[in-house]
Amino acid sequence: MRTGYDLELVHLTKRYGATVAVRDINHVFAPGSYVCLLGPSGCGKSSTLRMIAGHEEVSEGSILLEGADVSHLPPAKRGTAMMFQNYALFPHLSVRDNVAFSLRMKGVDKPTRHARANELLALVDMTHLADRLPTQLSGGQQQRVALARALVTEPKVLLLDEPLSALDPFLRIRMRSELKKLQRELGITFIHVTHGQDEALALADEIVVMNDAVIEQAGPAREVWAKPRTEFVARFIGGHNVIALPGGKATVRADAVTLATAGLPATVTAVEYQGASVAVSTTTESGDEVLALIPEDQFFAHPKSPGEAVRLSWDEERLHRLMA
Ligand code: ADP
Question: I need a labelling partner for 209 at 20 to 30 A (CA). Which of 129, 230, 238, 246 fits?
Answer without folding.
Answer: 246
